[in-house]
């Protein structure tokens, strides 16, 4: 499952979802992904390109223009990522309440494990 570590990171998900809408430039990603630094964006773009999920195209113009686009494999993956982010959005309040209950010691349920 090492591949999941490579493609399911916080930043990788945002990058892939943004690139799935069509070719996207570095500056668009930087503006569109809240909280990501230039360095973290660069590292993640390189990682996703290395994994075969993004294609980097450099256009020979001045100043140079670079775009990133999803490969077919990444487009397939983004459907799953969109389902995951939709699930997280639908359950965010419930998860926040569970965090609060856990942190205050007020889980209101047994402590038995299911494993």
Strand and helix layout:
Layout: H1 2-7, H2 10-20, E1 24-25, H3 26-32, H4 38-50, E2 54-59, E3 65-70, H5 72-103
Antiparallel strand pairs: 1-3, 2-3
Helix pairs in contact: 2-5
Mean pLDDT: 88
- Class inferred from helices and paired strands: alpha+beta
- State the end-to-end distance: 20 Å
Q: What summary fits the major beta sheet?
A: 3 strands, antiparallel
Which bin fits the share of residues in helices? Answer: 55-70%
Descriptive notes:
The mean pLDDT is 88. It contains five helices and three strands. With 115 residues, it is an alpha+beta fold. The chain has helices at residues 2-7, 10-20, 26-32, 38-50, 72-103, and strands at residues 24-25, 54-59, 65-70. It is elongated, with a radius of gyration of 18 Å.
């Amino acid at each position: 499952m090492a591949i999941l570590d490579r493609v399911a990171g916080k930043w990788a998900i945002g990058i892939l979802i943004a690139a799935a809408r069509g070719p996207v430039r570095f500056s668009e990603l930087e503006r569109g992904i809240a909280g990501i630094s230039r360095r973290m964006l660069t590292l993640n773009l390189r990682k996703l390109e290395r994994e075969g999920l993004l294609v980097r195209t450099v256009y020979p113009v001045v100043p140079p223009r670079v775009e990133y686009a999803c490969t077919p494999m990444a487009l397939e993956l983004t459907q799953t990522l969109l389902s995951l982010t939709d699930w997280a959005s639908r359950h965010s309040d419930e998860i926040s309440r569970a965090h609060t209950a856990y942190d205050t010691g007020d889980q209101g349920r047994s402590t038995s494990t299911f494993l």
